[in-house]
Design goal:
Chain A: This is Arylsulfotransferase (ASST). Chain A has about 400 residues and is mainly beta. Chain A has helices spanning about 5-25, 85-90, 95-100, 105, 215-220, 325, and strands spanning about 35-40, 50-60, 60-70, 75, 115-120, 120-130, 140-150, 155-160, 170-175, 180-185, 195-200, 210-215, 225-230, 235-245, 255-265, 270-275, 280-285, 290-295, 300-305, 310-320, 335, 340-345, 345-355, 360-365, 375-380, 390-400. Chain A is about 15% helix and about 50% strand. In chain B, helix 1 (about 1-55) crosses helix 2 and helix 4 (about 80-100) runs antiparallel to helix 6. Chain B starts with a helix and ends with a helix.
Chain lengths: ~400, ~280
């Protein structure tokens, strides 16, 4: 027995250390701070349609961060998911839901949320071949796939857009079943990209896509088109603004918004919307309605556009939880107003509330008609005394129309 | 069965005896270098703080603003911890080759005596394999114990206004190095050890090829390891071959990789058995 003493000691040492470590780890609390929703007004259930992803980090150790997900009012950490689920996780709430619910349909399809529209009965995917692999960068083939949620039957169509060679980018899709509207940026022109709207009749697919409007020609040739972010994509209108970019040096440029518009997917027309002079103009759409927002200091005035005469009437004045929300409107990825939207009569806004240099995500949900604040509150660490340097930065937000 | 298990135990014990000096040196070095880090890093920080306080007549808050808080994570993120881990990995990698060649390159060709033993030659193979893994886990366990020793040392050296209260597990979980070597995340731990398991099997096969066929064996070994590598890496290139990045989900890719790694491992084991039984002559 004594000749085995070294081996036995080493094995005991390994077993004891691994077991001890395992027990210590099991009893130790999670390294990720527990978060809570602090409701300052309204009811917390109104935040449930909001799905968001964010980084939780420490201002003293900014390189170490964890990814938190807020869904149905509950927080969960990406790092706490089972290993295989983490490998399939998409850092976009909409795509993540689609993968979870329709895994087979999502196979082989791009992972950009603007490529998907959904009705009660169908999910429609619209993507270019170039979205699937860089080898297809000059492909003019657009793939449209329609999933019938009831029968799980999938129909796929491949249609061509103009000539092959230039790069096409799908910017937005909208469905008024069976008519699909697709906003495509076409980079074939040598001077600037053109933004075109195509339609596709899902029930009569033989006809292929039809180019109905060239938004660039209808608005301003030398301006960039920035689209409004919609979470439902079944709205009648696709809102957009034109932006003039002026180079101030080789490395920098200034931007000026030159116009506000909406494309009517039913009448196939571009509606020119008057902006407010010297006051920030915000543009929204919800179901069949177009809204223009006047960003005042601590409130937003919402005007509804009368489509017959294109006149505006004030329907609501909403006091904002923080004046910064209105003036921190986010514009990136060719979109505008990412932090403000209207869905089924509710006005959703998010921003940050700052206390002692630490920003806390702030949400506000207001009923447009009654102007009642349905929810107003922040996301904060549960133990604020221990976690005073914890920062929470949201990077993806989605409002789930089905949960609204 | 009972007899061969007893032989395996005896041979493993024998191999462990031979590894022990090298292993204890690595374990000792790990503890010693870690310990130096647990004392030097916080002492250096406190030295800087004290110098700042006296030179600028500053308060503790001002010093924290200038230098930041100190936590145990600060120490785990230094070369004092990373260095011995790298040393352990390279040391055991070296020993994985040495464990075979030492039998041939001594004053006496001990390999003849070992291979002539009236036991299955695969028992010898498995004993060497097990010993390497005991070495790996001994070093992992040493590193774990070292961290438990280090945490109170660092907490004692750093004065409370400057110490950031991060628990030991928080400090460990924040360091990506430990994510791979400690069972913090079962999935990662199994993958890292699984890959190490297969790499060792392939390495042993290559060594046995060289021992069986000489220079030709080296070429054969390189070709075999390249084929094994290509087979394991092939699924990662499937999206490019099929011109679609989204055909396979990450979890499916991982399952395919696991199957391929198992295949390569089993194949290496059978090849090694063939080589050690039929090709290596005494």
């Amino acid at each position: 027995m004594s000749k085995y003493i070294k081996s036995i000691s080493l094995l005991l040492f390994i077993t004891a250390s691994l077991t001890g470590f395992g027990l210590y780890k099991a009893q130790a609390s999670s390294p990720h701070p527990e978060l809570k929703i602090v409701t300052s007004e309204g009811k917390p259930e109104h935040i449930e349609p909001i799905q968001t992803l964010g980084f939780v980090s420490d201002s003293q150790m900014p390189t170490q961060s964890s990814t938190v997900k807020l869904e149905n009012g509950d927080f969960s950490y990406f790092e706490d998911l089972p290993f295989l689920q983490r490998l399939d996780f998409s850092f976009d709430p909409k795509i993540n839901d689609l993968i979870n619910d329709h895994r087979s349909f999502m196979r082989g399809k791009s992972r950009l949320p603007e490529h998907y529209t959904e009705t009660e009965q169908h999910i429609i995917y619209t993507g270019m071949e170039s979205d699937l692999h860089w080898n297809h960068h000059s492909s003019n083939q657009m793939i449209i796939a329609v999933l019938d949620k009831g029968s799980e039957k999938e129909e796929t169509y491949s249609v061509s857009l103009g000539a092959s060679g230039p790069f096409y980018s799908i910017r937005a899709t909208s469905i008024d079943y069976p008519l699909l509207s697709v906003v495509v940026e076409d980079f074939s022109s040598s001077d600037a990209a053109e933004t075109l709207v195509y339609t596709f009749d899902i029930e009569n697919p033989a006809e292929g896509v039809t180019n109905v409007v060239n938004l660039t020609e209808e608005t301003e040739r030398n301006a960039r088109i920035r689209l409004g972010l919609h979470y439902d994509n079944t709205e009648r209108f696709i809102t957009f603004q034109t932006v003039r970019q002026t180079a101030v040096s080789n490395y920098d440029y200034t931007e000026e918004i030159s116009g506000y518009y909406a494309y009517d997917t039913q009448a196939h027309e571009v509606i020119d919307i008057q902006s407010f002079e010297d006051i920030e103009t915000l543009l929204f759409t919800d179901n069949d309605t177009l809204y223009v927002g006047k960003a005042l200091n601590e409130a937003i005035e919402l005007y509804q556009i009368d489509l017959t005469g294109e006149e505006m009437s004030l329907i609501s004045t909403i006091e904002m939880a923080s004046p910064s929300i209105l003036h921190e409107t986010e514009n990136y990825n060719g979109l505008f107003n990412q932090n403000l939207s209207i869905l089924d009569g509710k006005f959703y806004a998010y921003g940050y509330e700052y206390t002692e240099d630490i920003g806390r995500p702030l949400f506000q949900v207001t009923d447009i008609e009654t102007q009642e604040t349905l929810f107003q509150g922040t996301i904060e660490p549960k133990d604020t005394s221990k976690r005073e340097s914890t920062t929470i930065n949201l990077f993806e937000l989605q409002i789930d129309p089905e949960n609204n | 069965m009972k007899n061969s298990l007893h032989t395996l135990l005896k041979l493993t014990n024998f191999e462990l005896e031979r590894l022990s000096k090298f292993l204890f040196t690595l374990m000792g070095l790990t503890l010693l270098i870690n310990l130096a880090g647990y004392i030097y890093t916080p002492t250096q920080y406190m030295g800087r703080i004290n110098e700042y306080l006296t030179q600028n007549s500053a308060t503790a808050d001002e010093a924290v603003k200038a230098f930041g808080h100190f936590s145990f994570y600060t120490v785990t993120n230094t070369l004092w911890i990373g260095g011995p881990i790298a040393l352990g990995i390279s040391g055991l990698l070296f020993y994985s080759v040495f464990i075979w060649y030492r039998e041939w390159f001594g004053k006496n060709t001990f390999a003849y005596r070992l291979l002539m033993l009236p036991v299955s030659r695969m028992t010898l193979y498995f004993s060497k394999f097990i010993v390497i893994f005991i070495g790996i886990f001994s070093l992992i366990a040493t590193q774990m114990v070292s961290l438990f020793i280090g945490y109170p040392i660092v907490s004692a050296i750093i004065e409370s206004p400057y110490f950031r209260e991060l628990s030991l597990i928080e400090s460990i979980q924040m360091n990506p190095l430990f994510l791979f070597f400690f069972p913090l995340d079962f999935g990662y731990f199994v993958i890292v050890n699984g890959v190490g398991f297969v790499v060792l099997l392939v390495l042993f096969t290559v060594i046995l090829m060289e021992r069986s066929f000489g220079v030709k064996g080296i070429v054969l070994g390189i070709v075999y390891s390249l084929i094994a590598l290509a087979a394991v890496l092939l699924p990662l290139f499937l999206p490019d071959l099929l011109n679609n990045r989204y055909l396979l989900y990450g979890s499916e890719l991982m399952i395919i990789e696991t199957i391929l790694l198992t295949t390569v491992g089993v194949l290496s084991l059978f090849m090694s058995r063939h080589l050690i039984n039929k090709k290596i002559t005494v």
